Amino acid sequence: MTTVDKCPVAFPLRQPGQSFPPPQYLQFRKQQGLVSTTLPSGEHVWLVTRHEDVREVLTDPRISSNPSHPGFPRAAKTGGVPSQDEVPGWFVALDPPEHGRFRKTLIPEFTVRKVREMRPAIQQIVDERIDAMLAAGNTGDLIADFALSVPSLVISTLLGVPHADRDFFETKTRVLVTLTSTDEQRQAASKALLRYLNRLIVIKQKRPGDDLISRLLADGTLGKQELSGVSMLLLIAGHETTANNIGLGVVTLLSHPQWIGDERAVEELLRYYSVADLVAFRVAVEDVEIGGQLIRAGEGIIPLVAAANHDGTVFERPDEFDPSRSARSHVAFGYGVHQCLGQNLVRVEMDIAYRTLFERIPTLELAVPMTELPIKYDGVLYGLHSLPVRW
Ligand code: HEM
């Protein structure tokens, strides 16, 4: 077993000036794969870095996603994972069989066919964002103006959340996905979002629309409280993750222009950045052996998907951006029963976003040196705070 000293900063091991994934991941993987560490909260946790081991953790029924089990890593709770008591319907924190009822109800909304039908609406949102950028001049912040606004508008359109309320839900979400937010700030943000969605559901009961929340209300499988929690999960998961990936992807495509317009770039960008590296937290509910290491019941586990996606035994030259490789076996969307519900939507959003952006603004370039881009060292998700560009 390899032991790491108590993590000195908010857990992610991301440090200003350091590359991502953090160089320690490679060191851990080479040593043993599984590494024991202590979170800033004082809790002991296992970090899992090998691709094979990460997939095992995410599929073993003796390993739970439910934060109400003793030993569940606190960084997850403080990283925006509420429990069922706090937010009923937050099904990413449920294990089978309870989890299955939510998943089954939602899957028809996120199939490849369903997402294909959304293409014109997504294209329109992307075009309007670019129109606004062009109308504003020849400089901008690509995160605020595009990478965040596109997925935000797409998920609100799908759910039936008024576009005018974007500022509200984006601000509350940011509190939930910032590791340095206090428990009080996080609870307040979570309550405000739930109150907002409860009110929206009452409105949609009276005046249903052509949107996901109205369809789930009509379907009746989920109770109203559950529906608020489900909507909150989709709203949060649906914009921050994709926003980070779109922003980082633009930076990479600017320095690898030969891949612009090639749909293989999307899959490779998902692998390469693995922005949701600290999302799939778990706890062992029975003793279990992973990668030759005994993990005892009650011990927390963090499968580091960025480490797995840079595992050189699965991906040759893993730290190189190379869309010609087959990146499909990446675990950027997790693996097993909780594998990302929105993945088909993400692929379409990223594809349309990159194609249209570089087609309509072919002279796009960074307005600051790459080394000056403000990286989110304090985020549950890896990404950029802003991305100054000009054209
Ligand atoms: C689950 C990543 C975008 C909805 C997950 C998980 C990961 C992930 C790693 C697994 C969590 C776990 O095992 O505990 C990503 C990435 C995205 C993205 C990298 C974008 C680049 C989206 C979008 C939506 C979404 C756009 C909604 C439309 C969900 C939901 C779950 C989930 C509902 C929970 C599924 C379940 O528990 O069955 N995502 N996600 N995600 N994601 Fe995503």
TrEMBL record:
<dbReference type="InterPro" id="IPR036396">
    <property type="entry name" value="Cyt_P450_sf"/>
</dbReference>
<dbReference type="GO" id="GO:0004497">
    <property type="term" value="F:monooxygenase activity"/>
</dbReference>
<dbReference type="InterPro" id="IPR002397">
    <property type="entry name" value="Cyt_P450_B"/>
</dbReference>
<protein>
    <submittedName>
        <fullName>Cytochrome P450</fullName>
    </submittedName>
</protein>
<keyword id="KW-0560">Oxidoreductase</keyword>
<keyword id="KW-0349">Heme</keyword>
<feature type="region of interest" description="Disordered">
    <location>
        <begin position="61"/>
        <end position="82"/>
    </location>
</feature>
<keyword id="KW-0503">Monooxygenase</keyword>
<keyword id="KW-0479">Metal-binding</keyword>
<dbReference type="InterPro" id="IPR017972">
    <property type="entry name" value="Cyt_P450_CS"/>
</dbReference>
<dbReference type="GO" id="GO:0020037">
    <property type="term" value="F:heme binding"/>
</dbReference>
<comment type="similarity">
    <text>Belongs to the cytochrome P450 family.</text>
</comment>
<dbReference type="Pfam" id="PF00067">
    <property type="entry name" value="p450"/>
</dbReference>
<dbReference type="InterPro" id="IPR001128">
    <property type="entry name" value="Cyt_P450"/>
</dbReference>
<keyword id="KW-0408">Iron</keyword>
<dbReference type="GO" id="GO:0016705">
    <property type="term" value="F:oxidoreductase activity, acting on paired donors, with incorporation or reduction of molecular oxygen"/>
</dbReference>
<dbReference type="GO" id="GO:0005506">
    <property type="term" value="F:iron ion binding"/>
</dbReference>
